[in-house]
Amino acid sequence: MPSNVNFGEFALDALRETGNIGAGHAATSLSRLMDRKILILVPHVKIIPPIKLPTEIIHEPEELIAGVYVRITGDIDGSTLFLMSEGSAKRMVSVLLGKSESTACLSDEGQHLLTRIGDIMISSYLDALSEFTGLKAAASEPSFSFDMGGALVEAVALELDLEAGFGILIQTRFIDNEDEIEGHIVFLPNPNALQTVLTKMGVH
After folding, report:
1. Confidence (pLDDT) at 28
2. Alpha-carbon distance 125 to 16, whole Å?
3. How far is it, in rounded angstroms, from Cα 62 to Cα 132?
4. Any idea which of 20-34, 77-91, 104-118, 164-178 has the lowest mean pLDDT?
5. What is the pLDDT of residues 52-89, one digit of tens each?
6. Using CA atoms, how far apart are residues 102 and 73, in angstroms rounded to an integer?
């Protein structure tokens, strides 16, 4: 990773603003999809090594997480994931399908719903990032995985050779009436791509 990348508060503010714009777009799309008002908040944004991502989302690397994975090409090269702990994923399916959490297993219907939600979240974030920076990003078809958190993130990190790189972790909170469910957008750019993004944001 280039040593001159600035991880100061200005960089985080710029990334947080991008996340908020993306969350607004995603909330509009999800509200239309579900025919109900959905709010999405972005309380925290962090820049951390990919190896630390599982511990930011779950307590132990062996815990299961649901993930939607998209490969990114273009001016911004890398990968993006939308991740939820097993409990959050089941709760999301339960709320949106109107089933109790005890019966809201990750069935084909549940996986399809989570994949759709993850695709909307990732696409909205990438669109906001492109609007903010003027950089173009093309996304692959989303793929769903339900695996141990450590194994899932490690597989993506190895694919992109990100052992020495950094990832952008965007915490999100879905609010539907009185329900609040946590998820995470993880942007894993190649090292040069992160430098380009921050430079376009005015961070030197």
Report:
1. 92
2. 11
3. 36
4. 164-178
5. 766 777 667 678 889 999 999 988 888 888 989 888 89
6. 39
Q: Which residues pair with 85 in a beta bridge?
A: 65
Q: What is the pLDDT of residue 35?
A: 79
CA–chain centroid gap for 96, Å, is 19
Mean pLDDT of 1-28: 75
Give the pair of three-digit tokens for residue 43.
Answer: 């309380």
For 88: left if phi > 0, alpha if psi spans -120 to 50, otherwise beta; the answer is alpha
Provide the terminal-to-terminal Cα distance of the chain, rounded to the nearest Å.
Answer: 14
Cβ-contact 183, 26 below 8 angstroms: no
CATH class of 9-200: alpha beta
Tokens of 34: 């579900």
The tokens describing 196, both together, are 């380009």
Q: Is the dihedral of CA 177, 182, 183, 185 positive or negative?
A: positive
DSSP string spanning 130-143? HHHH---EEE---E
CA 126 to CA 80: how far, in whole Å?
9
Structure tokens at 2: 């280039």
pTM above 0.90, yes or no: no
Angstrom CA distances, 133 to 75, 130, 196, stand at: 10, 5, 9
Of 166, 133, 173, the residue nearest 44 (C-alpha): 173
For 99, 120, 192, the CA distances from 75, given in Å and listed in that order, are: 42, 21, 10
How far apart are alpha carbons 72 and 127 in whole angstroms? Answer: 12
Q: How confident is the model at residue 4 (pLDDT cuts 50, 70, 90)?
A: very low
